[in-house]
Amino acid sequence: MLPSFRPLTQFAIFLLAATLTACGGSSSSSSGNSPSGNPGGGNTGQAESKSHFDQTLTGFDDETVAFTVYVPENPQGKRVPLILHSHGFGLSRAKNFEAPDPLESFLTNDVSGDVARRAWLEKGFYVISFDQRGFGETTGNITVMDPDVDCRNVSQIIDWAEENLVNLSFEGDDPMIGSVGLSYGGGFQTVCSSVDKRFDAIVPLATWSNLPYSLYANSTPKNIWLDILSVASMGKLEPYLFEAIIAATTTGEIAPETVARLGSYSPRSFCQGGRSDGRTLSTADALFIQGSNDVLFNMNEAVENYECWKGQGNEAHLFIQRDGHILPALQEAGRQILFGTEGTLYCDDQTYATDDLALNFLVSKLQGTSAAAIPDVCFSLTEQQSGVTVSDVKRGGSLNNFGETQIIPGGLSNIVDLFISLPLPTVLATLTSLPLEAISTLTAVLTASADPTSLVNYLDDIVNLLPSELLSQLVAKGTFIPLQTMTEDGVLAGIPLAMLNVSGGNGDGNLLYIGLGKLPTAGGDFTLINDQVLPIRGSGLVAQEMIGVSDAVAAGDTIGLMVYGFHPYFTHVASIAQPPLPAVISGTVDLPFIPANGE
């Protein structure tokens, strides 16, 4: 059975299920309509007319690999590069860029799809859009980017392209290949370009650097996204991955061997060296685009990728904008319902259309043409239609101390307090699907005839039934600890550093969530900056890189540390049911502030 799903994700899950069902139709391979063979990749100067066709090949393990080939209008038979494009988790390839049906339009309605479409129609490049393993018409279990499985399939597609794309351009024996894709479509680029060095330029959007950090930061499962990924897999996950999701939802733990395995499916492992297979990081130049409000793959992951690529001597650029993987019930949705990238980027006095930026980067790298210089790092602020550029990502810079503050861990007391504030009939009507004994226990707690801890056995069921507006009220229970009142306008842009001391509470069993908050000088309540929280565990001294921030601040705004005893991004029973024993937190937070007049 699938893990139980939080109500705030049900709308998203419904849309995923509907989309995946609609994508389940079959289409025949058009292998007989492919270009004539071109063994060895020699260029023939053969005239070609614009067309596209579906193609399949048999993978190394006898699974089917399905893709669509886009041939450009090329009457002179000039040499042209190839762009590889692929989809996000749970979706499928682009089978008709020129005249998509409504479903096709939905599936490709992101910047990566726009770039691939324009590379074919405007720049005259070959484009291959492929179904990743376990999705669309590509068969096999989903491994979440196993270098020895998924990347071997990608290499087979490149082999096919060398043999069959008669006007494919080469530099010596090396085919000129670029790539673009968002989320899972970014993961194939970073991992597979480290396995197969034929990639020359990559544009990963909203993707990971280290899957254990993405899904299990500080040994705490990000259940809300694990639920969504489980549904999006349509039951095709490798069994050990499905078992890991079940364990994460129920016990809050993932087996160490699974964590290590997921780490080896991440670009970080290639950057650090020491892999047992001896593989090293990609040699492709890279343009990374990531969302500050992305709660699945946050800014820190893109920073790590950028620094990794740059540290290995590759050209690399990093653009931070707002959107990414967005939870519609808890966050303001972007261009897509669950994911997307903003169409315009603001960098100092420059404005970029995101698809122009990505396409021009690929063209310059694959055809050796000159292109306008672009920043190393840009923090784009859409609401202000402004942004800042820097040469490196700041870590800290403005140190702030705060004294001892009491925090109540766990969600039990929050849930009880919330229900006490509501009429009992409203509470019971909301939770009508609970078992009878659970309703009886809840009624006893709310009428003060039973201890709140008697609800522990039913917490998972209760949280699963809460509507999003009530879960949002639970989030509002965070504690705001003032750190610094700003004396000038500027931007928080970079990675905050925290040195915290946690005592009391549940000792080594403490589980709290930290982020940055802002109390505006213009009035109103404090808000959680970029919707980001990070779990911290245990007691004693905790040194922690917090989740990166990108937010405009005004003189008079107060920036503070936000601390939660419960957060709906992480809703396994063990997290919610911590005994509500007061913990005390104190320490320092180092803020990456860039004044409006420069660094």
Radius of gyration: 25 Å
Which spans of ≥5 residues are poorly predicted at pLDDT below 50?
Answer: 1-9, 17-42
Mean pLDDT comes to 88
**End-to-end Cα distance:** 53 Å
Helix content: 25-40%
Strand content: 15-25%
How many helix segments? 18
Class per helix and strand makeup: alpha+beta
Biggest sheet statistics: 10 strands, mixed
**Principal-axis shape:** globular
The spatial strand order of the largest sheet comes to 1-2-4-3-7-8-9-10-13-14
The total count of strands amounts to 26
Structure explained in plain terms:
With 599 residues, the chain is α+β, with helices and mostly antiparallel strands. It is built from 18 helices and 26 strands. The chain is globular, with a radius of gyration of 25 Å. The strands form six sheets. Strands 1-2-4-3-7-8-9-10-13-14 form a ten-stranded mixed β-sheet, sandwiched between helices. Strands 16, 19, 20, 21 and 24 form a five-stranded antiparallel β-sheet that branches. 29% of the residues lie in helices and 25% in strands. The longest helix has 15 residues. Helix 3 packs across helix 12 and helix 7 packs antiparallel against helix 8. The N terminus is likely disordered.
Summarize the structure.
With 599 residues, this protein is α+β, with helices and mostly antiparallel strands.
